[in-house]
């Protein structure tokens, strides 16, 4: 029944871990880093979007924007709870950072993490108004969908489960964004603004998938924390985003 | 931060030669903290020779049993499990954290589901809790248990399972798989591996009828079963895992005490181990943190908050002394074992060594 097996071999063969007790030290570090990146991105994303609720045209859009803010914050909380099981001080964590802080609109961070948190670089850029917020939400919403599909397979079972629970609501956020975008592009001036905003956000969202041929990927794959390489995920997102925007007759320049 | 509560041992029953079932009672004021979900576990702490050891054991009671029971199987060389089996007595007080764990599926009284559980050895404990709860709270559901053990005499809860089967006629089926004892049907002898799973699905269990599967046992068994379940169309969102890792260390290692701990120079020679590779560099004692220094030397050390809050950057000091400016994440017993938050740590001695691998 129980011949001994190295935990590394178990993970390499697709095994799952289920509690902080059976997690090796290196795995713990990478798992925490992965969770922190998600939590920080959700908190920063929600904080940035919160300011845009007041830009929303009409009651439905206001509700949609408020709902996105509330749900992204809840998703951060769901994963932060798992970090807490590893010892993180969740109360301090949630308030330790000015999540709404942003860099200049024309800054270029590339793929690097910046500042004192682990948010994806795209969440460092400021939103300039409603159209801009919708454009970012559509592109990043689709990216989140691709990333959550990947993360729903992580080898830490409680986290995989959390991501599977979170995924449908995040997908809905992207749909709400697309609905907003559909209304925006109904007028020629709206269409022009949307195209400009989408062109701004497109490369920044693409950066969130990380480098092609990443050397970290092999290590994370051995631990079962990743499965498909960055470039495959980027290709999935590119196809999804082109299809979604193409459906609205939008062609985004610079690609 | 984790909090421990006293639990009094009110009953103690030796279930097999090397397993004990312990019934525990919280203080009246702590009762709410020990409301549990089926399949959850308790983490205990106990000092052995002045050194704290923590161990988690699954609750085996159902939600409606009105008791809090855990099953503890003695592990060869395991300090806590041996102590629990040999020295623990009624009236003793154990310290435990409130129940934790997510090894359960929500109960829906109106549903008629087919649950499939796989337990290896003491992996039966959380599954028993789930079985008891499902049978009591989902009257139209049924449960199939595949239960692997070395031999008949090592089967935990054998009688209790038989009683449950008789009490809930037709709703609980149990297939015992014994590693070293031949049974009438050859299928039920040996290990649960890929071939055995195929045979089970061919002639005993219809995978199409399964709504939710639970697996609790050691690594190879978990792998073989999960692989087979997926191959038979049971996706990961319908499989619940609880790993009973075989490689748990017996006793926490004492932190190595340095003999060259005298501090003199302004700079320290720091050795940092990550992924089995040790790198040595010099760092100012009053300078940046050990994490910052490691990152500056292209060591891909894990970190997130850099504020002493999240514990992502945890490492173990194996030589010398360091000082943490802030610690909101590590508990005293971890600190005693030599763990530090590297984002908050600066060296005190002329040589320090730390490892992210331990």
Q: Any key phrases for this structure?
A:
heterodimer, A: 255 residues, mainly alpha, Ferritin, 9 helices, 63% helix, globular, B: 358 residues, alpha/beta, Elongation Factor Tu (Ef-tu), domain 3, Rossmann fold, Ubiquitin-like (UB roll), 3 domains, 6-stranded antiparallel sheet, 5-stranded parallel sheet, 7 helices, 18 strands, 19% helix
Describe the structure.
The complex is a heterodimer of chains A (255) and B (358). Chain A has one domain (18-102, 114-246): Up-down Bundle (Ferritin). Chain A has helices at 7-12, 25-50, 59-85, 90-95, 130-151, 157-184, 188-207, 215-222, 230-246. Chain A is mainly alpha-helical and 255 residues long. Chain B has 358 residues and is an alpha/beta fold. In chain B, a hairpin with a 2-residue loop joins β12 (267-274) and β13. Chain B has helices spanning 79-86, 124-137, 158-167, 194-203, 219-231, 290-296, 332-336, and strands at 5-16, 19-26, 41-48, 51-58, 68-73, 93-96, 114-120, 142-149, 172-178, 212-217, 239-243, 267-274, 277-284, 314-319, 322-324, 339-341, 345-347, 351-355. Classes of the chains: A mainly alpha (255), B alpha/beta (358). At the A-B interface, α2 and α6 of A face α5 and β11 of B.
Brief write-up:
Chain A is built from nine helices and no strands.
């Amino acid at each position: 029944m129980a011949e001994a097996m190295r935990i590394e071999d178990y993970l390499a063969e697709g095994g799952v871990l289920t509690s902080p007790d059976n997690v090796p030290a290196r795995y713990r570090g990478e798992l925490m880093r992965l969770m922190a990146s998600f939590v920080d991105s959700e908190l920063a994303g929600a904080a940035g979007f919160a300011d845009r609720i007041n830009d929303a045209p009409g009651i439905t859009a206001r509700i949609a924007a408020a709902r996105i803010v509330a749900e992204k914050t809840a998703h951060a909380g769901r994963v932060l709870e798992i970090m807490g099981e590893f010892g993180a001080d969740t109360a301090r964590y949630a308030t330790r950072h000015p999540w709404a802080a942003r860099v200049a609109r024309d800054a270029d961070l590339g793929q690097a993490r910046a500042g004192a948190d682990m948010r994806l670089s795209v969440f460092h850029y400021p939103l300039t108004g409603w159209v801009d917020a919708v454009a970012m939400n559509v592109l990043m919403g689709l990216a989140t969908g691709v990333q959550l599909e990947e993360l729903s397979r992580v080898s830490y079972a409680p986290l995989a489960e959390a991501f599977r629970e979170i995924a449908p609501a995040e997908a809905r956020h992207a749909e709400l964004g697309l609905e907003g975008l559909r209304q925006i592009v109904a007028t020629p001036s709206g269409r022009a603004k949307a195209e400009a905003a989408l062109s701004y956000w497109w490369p920044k969202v693409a950066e969130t998938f990380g480098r092609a041929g990443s050397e970290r990927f092999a290590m994370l794959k051995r631990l079962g924390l990743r499965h498909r390489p960055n470039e495959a995920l980027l290709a999935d997102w590119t196809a999804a985003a082109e299809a979604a925007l193409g459906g609205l007759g939008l062609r985004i320049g610079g690609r | 931060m984790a909090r421990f509560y006293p639990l009094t041992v009110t009953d103690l029953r030796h279930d097999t030669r090397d397993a004990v079932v312990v019934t525990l009672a919280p203080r009246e004021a702590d009762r709410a903290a020990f409301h549990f979900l089926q399949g959850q576990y308790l983490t205990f702490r106990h000092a052995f020779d002045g050194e704290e050891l923590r161990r988690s054991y699954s609750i085996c009671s159902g939600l409606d049993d009105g008791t809090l029971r855990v099953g503890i199987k003695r592990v060869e060389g395991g300090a806590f499990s041996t102590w629990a089996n040999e020295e623990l007595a009624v009236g003793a007080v154990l310290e435990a954290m409130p129940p934790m764990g997510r090894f359960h599926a929500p109960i829906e009284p109106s549903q008629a589901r087919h649950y499939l559980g796989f337990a290896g050895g003491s992996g039966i404990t959380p599954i028993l809790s789930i079985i008891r709860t499902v049978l009591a709270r989902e009257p139209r559901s049924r449960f199939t248990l595949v239960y692997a053990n070395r031999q008949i005499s090592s089967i935990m809860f054998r009688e209790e399972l038989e009683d449950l089967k008789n009490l809930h006629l037709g709703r609980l089926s149990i297939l015992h798989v014994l590693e070293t004892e031949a049974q009438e049907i050859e299928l039920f002898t040996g290990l649960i591996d890929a071939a055995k799973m195929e045979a089970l699905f061919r002639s005993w269990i219809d995978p199409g009828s399964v709504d939710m599967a639970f697996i609790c046992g050691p690594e190879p068994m978990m792998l073989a079963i999960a692989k087979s379940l997926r191959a038979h169309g049971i996706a990961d969102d319908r499989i619940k895992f609880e790993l009973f890792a075989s490689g748990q260390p017996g006793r926490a290692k004492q932190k190595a005490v340095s003999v060259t701990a005298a501090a003199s120079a302004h700079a320290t020679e720091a050795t940092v181990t990550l992924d089995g590779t040790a790198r040595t560099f010099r760092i100012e004692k009053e300078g940046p943190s050990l994490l910052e220094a490691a990152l500056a030397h292209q060591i891909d050390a894990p970190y997130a908050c850099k504020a002493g809050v999240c514990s992502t950057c945890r490492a173990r000091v194996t030589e010398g002394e360091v000082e943490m400016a802030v610690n909101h994440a590590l508990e005293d017993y971890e600190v005693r074992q030599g763990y530090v938050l590297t984002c908050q740590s600066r060296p005190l001695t002329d040589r320090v060594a730390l490892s992210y691998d331990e």
